[in-house]
């Protein structure tokens, strides 16, 4: 781990883990400040987990979460006050340490010269040139000029970001493209259901980010703070500015664990788990493997969420494992769904209901998880049936698989790119922004009414690439997205209901019905999910090889 000294008594660090506490204590630190909000990353422990571990080693822990790039002057004052009141030395951390270094720099603006701030932070490994400009500019980051400029800037290096970068490079190799993303690791998130079902190992779903950024594409390892589309500028964490000719926005969405009272305190223990986090999916399988009797509750929050089938996939694979071990008769399965239907496309429901009945699962619709008490093994749900007053019900559990509420990232929701609900506002066919014609978006963050899945991003990337290249040539959009999304519903080990659909619930099968009938559970679909889709993702989609993803052309009416 990195312990980067900013000044006597204060250091900054990238994300720390609970098992780092011995090293932190041995280094002489007495207190920790967390400047990273919970839920920023799929491999991120909650502050509560950090605080619990710190307490065991006699370290004080303070939570001062800062949305990336949103460091206010008041935040800096609060940070300085914390340094004055906490026992020192103090270690502050966030995703990379940049927010903590920014807070320290701003908190010292009246005590140190900008030259001293720059020298101290540079020695610690942080570029605070943008922060110094902000100090010199009366607290505002100027965007008339930038620290760097590119023809295309892509925000987010998830499935959509890397795929669209590769698709652009395949069409126009000389393009100067930059991808902005602070993460060191890229995850194949569709694989986490399989980890929770005991089929994949967690490490099979992860690759280093540097190994996946397409050749010739610049990687800016930073978080985005804000957009100034009128100036074609993106402001980064640390107040640096990147200018662009065209922008693609695809940072994914935010998992809002804190919206459920008591959840963050008990995740990963007391039988509470989630396949929506890299480090928790193995705990799901641990619980399933060890459970012999009791109640297992699987939750689904209000839409929109990424992969609407994932909450019930966890239920089916768990039920199958218990059935194979002969303990299913002693396990009471409940699927508590905030919505009113099992699956939004009715054509797939009959096959799914056969498995609901096979595992003797109770379907509780309009049940939204709002609170958890892990040690007491209790959960509370708001029941919001139509035309009925909201009722809160309590349920005990032995295992609780939670799918967290999901929103657009904070820096998107407050930006001029967002619609009233906080999602990037695009034309659902061309994926071009409705207001700013040099901005496009794809993946989970945009507001087209499609399923938020990796398969959707696989189809969207070539559409954005085709339309952006056409725009560079002075033409109109040439490709359209039909809303395609795919949800391989793992109903048992060895069989999958392959749901493929587009806008309006239209079925969009990729294979002949004789090969794979998506409305029925098939072994062929399982083979596709287990053996073919991971290499299609790593070696096809992320490399610009658009297998099964040819853009649909716009035709004149």
From TrEMBL:
Pfam families xrefs: BLH_phosphatase, Pyr_redox_2
GO biological process, one term: sulfide oxidation, using sulfide:quinone oxidoreductase
Signal peptide: none
Every FAD/NAD(P)-binding domain range: 150-263
Keywords: FAD, Flavoprotein, Oxidoreductase, Quinone, Transit peptide
Occurrences of domain Beta-lactamase hydrolase-like protein phosphatase-like (ranges): 3-110
Superkingdom of source: Bacteria
Keyword ATP-binding recorded: no
Cofactor(s) annotated in UniProt: FAD
InterPro entries: BLH_phosphatase-like, FAD/NAD-bd_sf, FAD/NAD-binding_dom, Prot-tyrosine_phosphatase-like, Sulphide_quinone_reductase
GO molecular function, one term: quinone binding
NCBIfam families: TIGR01244 family sulfur transferase
UniProt-recorded name of the protein: Sulfide:quinone oxidoreductase
């Amino acid at each position: 781990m990195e312990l980067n000294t900013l000044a006597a008594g204060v250091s900054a660090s990238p994300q720390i883990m609970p098992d780092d506490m011995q090293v932190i204590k041995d280094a002489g630190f007495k207190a920790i400040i967390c400047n990273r909000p919970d839920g920023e990353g799929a491999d991120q422990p909650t502050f509560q987990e950090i605080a619990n571990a710190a307490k065991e080693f006699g370290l004080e822990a303070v939570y001062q979460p800062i949305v990336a790039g949103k460091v206010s002057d008041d935040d800096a004052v609060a940070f300085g006050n914390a340094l004055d009141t906490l026992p020192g030395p103090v270690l502050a951390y966030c995703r990379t340490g940049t927010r903590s270094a920014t807070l320290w720099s701003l908190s010292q603006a009246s005590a140190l010269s900008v030259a001293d701030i720059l020298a101290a932070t540079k020695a610690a490994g942080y570029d605070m040139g943008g922060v110094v400009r902000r100090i010199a500019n009366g607290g505002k980051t100027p965007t008339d000029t930038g620290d760097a400029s590119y023809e295309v800037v892509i925000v987010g290096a998830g499935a959509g970001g890397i795929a669209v970068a590769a698709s652009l490079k395949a069409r126009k190799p000389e393009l100067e493209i930059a991808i902005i993303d602070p993460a060191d690791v890229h995850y194949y998130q569709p694989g986490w259901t399989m980890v929770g079902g005991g089929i994949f190992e967690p490490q099979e779903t992860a690759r280093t980010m540097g190994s996946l950024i397409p050749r010739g594409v610049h990687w800016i390892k930073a978080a985005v703070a804000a957009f100034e589309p009128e100036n074609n500028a993106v402001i980064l964490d640390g107040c640096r500015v990147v200018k662009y000719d065209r922008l693609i926005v695809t940072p994914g969405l935010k998992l809002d664990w804190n919206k459920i009272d008591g959840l963050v305190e008990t995740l990963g223990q007391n039988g509470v788990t989630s396949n929506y986090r890299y480090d928790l999916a193995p705990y799901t399988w641990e619980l399933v493997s060890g459970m012999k009797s009791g109640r297992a509750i699987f939750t689904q929050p209000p839409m929109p969420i990424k992969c609407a089938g994932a909450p019930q996939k966890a239920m089916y694979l768990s039920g199958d494992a218990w059935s194979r071990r002969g303990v299913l008769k002693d396990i009471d399965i409940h699927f508590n769904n905030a919505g009113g239907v099992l699956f939004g496309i009715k054509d797939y429901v009959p096959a799914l209901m056969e498995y609901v009945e096979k595992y003797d699962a109770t379907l509780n619709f309009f049940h939204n998880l709002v609170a958890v008490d892990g040690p007491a093994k209790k959960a509370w749900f708001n029941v919001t049936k139509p035309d009925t007053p909201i009722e809160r019900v309590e349920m005990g559990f032995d295992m609780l698989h939670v799918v967290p509420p999901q929103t657009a990232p904070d820096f998107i929701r407050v930006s001029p790119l967002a619609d009233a609900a906080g999602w990037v506002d695009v034309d659902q066919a061309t994926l071009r922004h409705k207001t700013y014609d040099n901005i496009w978006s794809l993946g989970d963050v945009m507001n087209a009414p499609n399923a938020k899945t990796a398969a959707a991003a696989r189809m969207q990337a070539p559409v954005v690439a085709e339309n952006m290249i056409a725009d560079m040539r002075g033409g109109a959009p040439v490709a359209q997205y039909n809303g395609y999304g795919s949800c391989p519903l793992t109903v048992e080990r060895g069989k999958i209901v392959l749901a493929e659909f587009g806008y309006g619930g239209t079925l969009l099968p990729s294979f002949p019905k004789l090969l794979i009938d998506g409305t029925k559970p098939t072994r062929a679909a399982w083979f596709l999910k287990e053996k073919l889709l991971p290499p299609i993702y790593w070696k096809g989609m992320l490399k610009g090889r658009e297998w099964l993803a040819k853009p649909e052309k716009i035709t004149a009416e």
